[in-house]
């Protein structure tokens, strides 16, 4: 249904809700936000003209509850609903319910959402439309034996995918037959939790492809155009991390062929609005249909930057029943744009999501830089939601100019609180394979291996210690009455030595700090020492590219142009509980879905112990040692650090 409207409810949260509202406000539309208790102080709520609370926090009882969202629309007097991406954006029932309630749904018809949301049905429809597809199994028989047989028939490696959703949820790559059953169980469980359906499809895994997608737009009058492509090959856990437009290896002929296939796909299902047709592109130039996302994409800013078109404004126009107003020959691409997704996650710990308060947030600015974010200082990053915090986008006349601008912008980005992937993004953009435009979906594994986080060197530690010492000195002077700054750190015997204990992950550093007559600090740990001076901060004569410093209780944050560091001050008498490999704790806040062992069970190193759900993903907890289970927690909501399983190891 199309029609005019003067107010829009954005059925989403975070950066996408704020981004949609900015265009809506620019068009004179009233903006209505929905939020949970956990999001009550979020920027999108403060920006909106009106806001409605729809729950405590868990997505199943709030952002995924269509009835609550529709009730919010009625309560607020909204005339239209924009679903953003994720949550209810590809829920055909929600789209139909909006239209039944007299609301303009800013998206495609429910019939198109339903068809393309079912990956099995979508593959069949695309095959009928002549769009090339990856070979696989898309049948209705979901018996484990049938799926196992089909996987063996097509040969490993095999990709398991949730039939009802995307975004990397319910997706597992299985390298060999013996891992299929466990991967299938996890994929189904994750799919059910995310999409309400545990149906899966199987596909023959295409090794080392590029992930290339075409942005399409269709109006209610039969016009369908594409706005070029995006390369989204840099991924971890099957979720995109870096995206760019145009694709580095695209040719005019290949763009015309892929664009025509995408337009044919949209035309075959009576599409309307913004959509993305995703393909796998191999090194021979052959491409295969992957899926169609019937919504706005996270990475839409790179298309906006190279085409000069506001895609949300186009969505509003199509929803009002207007014609697109341009033809395929009117679409041109100018320059190059690259987007990096800033996630609350720890690359050094398997990219596990991170949660907690945001102590300091300073986004980058500058020529050709765009930041779409939905966070603010003092806001808590919740384990209930996706860990993406912001998108940093750079545009340049050439790909390398855009890449260099994005690296500089990330170096200027400061976020203290949860762990983030900022340093990983900087390193990824600087890898020779990415700089040369050669990254495929195997890029992260090939370029980083297991080492996705740098190890702190002594210069880093010395810089942090110096900043803490200076902070402590300033605090002491603030409390002092007659002590001058020049006498700080001195006593009657001469220079005073202070000791500082820091923890950096699993590493402990015991440091001695001595202030010299010239104000310089000598920082040592018994084996090494460094001379640190201030204004500007230098370690052994090398200037520290300081971008930010923050102290929150016993936590200390320091960001340079290359690294963001977090240390904890270890106070005298504090003794950390040494659980070793036999104590398995929750790596983050979340819901302990399954505990696969019981008290008294014998386990071997590598055995699966439990499944934890956090930030919309499921994580397996694995035994690091062999032994007997002394304690196993019951499924429940858990906090980071809670003991979940204790394994008593045998004496050597």
From TrEMBL:
SUPFAM superfamilies found in the cross-reference section: Glutathione synthetase ATP-binding domain-like, PreATP-grasp domain, Rudiment single hybrid motif, Single hybrid motif
Superkingdom of the source species: Bacteria
Swiss-Prot/TrEMBL cofactor(s): biotin
Pfam families xref list: Biotin_carb_C, Biotin_carb_N, Biotin_lipoyl, CPSase_L_D2
Keywords: ATP-binding, Biotin, Ligase, Nucleotide-binding
Domain ATP-grasp: 123-320
Molecular function terms, GO-annotated: ATP binding; ligase activity; metal ion binding
Occurrences of domain Biotin carboxylation (ranges): 4-449
InterPro entries, A to Z: ATP-grasp, BC-like_N, Biotin_BS, Biotin_carboxylase_complex, Biotin_carboxylation_dom, Biotin_COase_C, Biotin_lipoyl, CPAse_ATP-bd
Domain Lipoyl-binding: start-end pairs: 575-648
Protein's name according to its UniProt entry: Biotin/lipoyl-binding protein
Organism ancestry: Bacteria, Pseudomonadati, Pseudomonadota, Alphaproteobacteria, Rhodobacterales
